[in-house]
Amino acid sequence: MKIDEDGIKIAGVFFILAIVSYGCYYLAESYTGLWFFYIFFIVFLFSFYFFRDPERKIPQDKNSIISAADGIVVDVSQIEAEGFEGGMALRIAVFMNVFNVHVNRSPFSGNVIKTIHRPGKKLSAFNKRAEYENEHGDIDIETSFGLIRVRQIAGLIARRVVTRVKTGDNLEKGSRIGLIRFGSRVDVFLPSTCKPFTEKGDRVRAGESVIAIHG
């Protein structure tokens, strides 16, 4: 299974720390060093699990819009949204816990027309103010049927939003677009004319689960 590049770097750091800790135990017979070895080695192994990046079977039909994140759907609603026709958008929000795959994917094919990163707070992802007050990154994608906005929201545990696309990039449906370290939420904003194909409480997988239909 593929491991995200961030995971390889972080795992490498904890592997080195584990080796150093074991060296302290071996040379100084310090059981404190042994305990730190166990801790760092466990985190080293967990890094590979957390940053796993499995391949996904991406739906190829022309009308389906797929989830940008793995997790549980926590909101499906029509809300006011800047940049969308009529000032309204269909929002589908997915909460990711620390055990979900954290690689985010493009819900549909299109061109990236804008990316924005906004610093902010670290409120719980379930807090209604998190969408507006937390650190987050927006990826605006122009598609054949209108604008899609993917919002990566940092949370109480998540400490970093990673966006790996830039303005001008051409995306295929299911393309990898970034990740959020250690859980949080990803909101997908769609034209209000799209029909939701999921509901609150559903479990979805990035790149595979259909969350809405256009046309």
Task: Please give a structural write-up.
- The chain is an alpha+beta fold.
- The protein folds into two domains: 5-50; 64-213, Glucose Permease (Domain IIA).
- It has three helices and 14 strands.
- It has helices at residues 5-28, 31-50, 130-133; strands at 64-66, 71-80, 88-96, 103-105, 110-118, 136-143, 146-153, 160-163, 170-171, 176-181, 184-191, 195-196, 203-204, 210-213.
- The strands form three sheets. It has an eight-stranded antiparallel sheet with strand order 9-5-6-7-11-3-2-13. The chain has a three-stranded antiparallel sheet with strand order 1-14-12, with no helix packed on it. The chain has a three-stranded antiparallel sheet with strand order 4-10-8, with no helix packed on it.
- Helix 1 (5-28) packs antiparallel against helix 2 (31-50).
- InterPro entries: PS_Dcarbxylase, PSD-A.
- One of its GO terms (molecular function) is phosphatidylserine decarboxylase activity.
- This is Phosphatidylserine decarboxylase.
- Pfam families: PS_Dcarbxylase (PF02666).
